[in-house]
Amino acid sequence: MAENKTDTSAVQTKKLHNLLGDMAEGMDKLYACLRDQQKALMGWKLADFVETVKRQRRLARENLGREDERRALVRKLAGGQNAANRSLRDLAEMFGGRWPKKFQAVADKIKSSSARVAEMKKQNEALITRSRDLVDGQLRLMINLASLNRNTYEQSGRKTGRGSTHKVLDQKA
Length: 173
Known about the structure:
173 residues; 0% strand; mainly alpha
């Protein structure tokens, strides 16, 4: 019976390692998505941007599902409710053999992928903020120009009394 438990534990350990590899791959896909999002932002391509947001949400849901699966698997392997938050290093030491190096490699991959994702996300947020500020500034300019346009006169010499953004937009710079 003890041998069967060891076999099950080995299978579960391999499953956990594979799941962690999938999580690292998911982070790489998320990074690629964020990179595409940055290109869409820089090119002012709204349809492409919207598509990357949808893809980003799908990838995030997939990774959250993997995280839930990881926690459940760790609870089985390490035992107990608090076991789900144990570090990979602790788990690898618990499994022994070749696992510490394998788990360390996948942990390093997840860490570096997460850092790249965080940096790209930060850059994209800055681009979105700048774009929003630019659009807001352009709208304020148009509103200000329209208010200046209120004191214009028709060809008959009569004061128009109201501004028109059409007149502002139709004027040549």
